[in-house]
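agent> fetching stored inputs for the guanosine-5'-monophosphate docking request
agent> found them:
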Amino acid sequence: MSAHTKLYEGKAKIIYPTDDPQIFLAVFKDDATAFNAQKRGSIQGKGAINCSISSKLFQELEARGIKTHFIDSPAPNQMRIEAVKILPLEVVVRNIAAGSLCQQTGLALGTVLKQPLVEFYYKNDQLGDPLLTRDRLFLMELATVEQVNKITHLALQINEFLKEFFQQCDITLVDFKLEFGLNSQQELLLADEISPDTCRLWDIAAGNDPNRRVLDKDRFRRDLGNVEDAYQEVLRRVLKAVERE
Ligand code: 5GP
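agent> prediction call returned; pasting tokens
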């Protein structure tokens, strides 16, 4: 496995081919970026932590009948995954108003939404991942009507599981981003990762303290410090919750 064999390098992961064309190897990096890569840094141990959290969550979802790209994890920062073609969509599910929802609507941070909100963003760094309307999504043929309906259904199912799971970890799941891909049989699989890089996670024990409660990438985005500790803490609680099951 050498640098020149990589298939793709993203902001948080490198994807390598394997001897089996149906299987890729994802290597999770410690690199951290925010605000469309305008802010760059590194979080020590992040690759292994995010890979471990994602692996556990993907296995839990698989056990509940949700198909993911996860195969196994041969090393703490490595995941063997089914080869998929990623749809250029970022699927965001929100339970509580935060981040761009507050910025774009004026809703107060922390407003509990009456029902989960599922949103589609165009995964395109050059354009800054803009929010899509359904009509724009179809205009650009980013997915079919059937795929959008299926993704919406899956995103809500995944939210129900994750909300409950994180509750057991004494964590409030505020919002998160999912990506989906198609395998060689054109089956839709949950892909990418589910980690403190892609979720907003608030520590219930910290109450309403807007800084202390943050256990996710907002610590890096907002320079709150102790980023690595927060990620470690999420991993510790996830492992404990899985053990308890
Ligand atoms: P927002 O739209 O408020 O910035 O993000 C909503 C949720 O989706 C947050 O949990 C955020 O971490 C996640 N998210 C949205 N876009 C991205 C992205 O490009 N990369 C990552 N890692 N997470 C994202």
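agent> quick read of the result: The two ends are 37 Å apart (CA to CA).
agent> awaiting further instructions
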